[in-house]
Every structure is written in C-alpha cells, then in structure tokens.
Amino acid sequence: MTRTLEELLAGRSDGPAVDVAALAARVRDSRRVLLVLDDDPTGSQTVHDVAVVTVFDPDEVAAGLDGPGGTCFILTNTRSMG
Fold first, then answer.
1. Were both Cys, which of 11, 36, 51, 82 would link to 67 (CB 3.0–4.6 Å)?
2. In this predicted model, what pLDDT tens digit does every residue of 13-41 receive, in sequence order?
C-alpha cells in the first residue's frame, strides 16, 4: 500500500504541521542538489524522479544532477568488492 506524505504525517502530535507543497517548492527554488553515493542498488529503488548513474564519470554525474529532481544516485557497487 502506497501512502502519501500527508497521510503518513496525519495525526502526529510530536511536531508542527508540514505544508508539503510549500516544502517541495522551497527545495526546488533553492536550486540545491543532492549527490548520493550508494553501495546498494535498493537505495535508489526507494525514491522516484531521481537520476541513477552506474559509472563514475563526471559528465554522467553532471547530467544526473541537471535532472528535474536535483538529486543523483551514484551506484558505487562497493559491496561486491572483496
């Protein structure tokens, strides 16, 4: 069952109400980017509208960060190393 952020936060008494649309707009307008080094491909499977780069190439990473989400996962695959 997939639930929205609003549904997950509904009824919580341990924090302030969150205006999800306003928060998303602030993140988008900040033009900040997030680069995630991920050693396990399941991490990138938990998000959507996020670029995933499988090779550590500066042009590929730059292209991933230029995407609409401003987030890019780089799969390092370090778990497969001895």
1. 51
2. 666 667 878 877 887 788 778 888 888 77
Nearest residue to 47 via CA among 77, 25, 67, 30:
67
Residue type, 31: R
- Indicate the residue type of 52: V
Report the number of distinct structural domains present in the chain. 1
Q: Which amino acid is at 34?
A: L
Across 14-18, 54-58, 69-73, least confident range: 14-18
The verdict on residue 39 lying in a domain is: yes
**The tokens of 62 are what?**
């730059």
Strand stretches in the chain, DSSP E = 34-38, 51-53, 71-75
Residue 9 lies in a domain: no
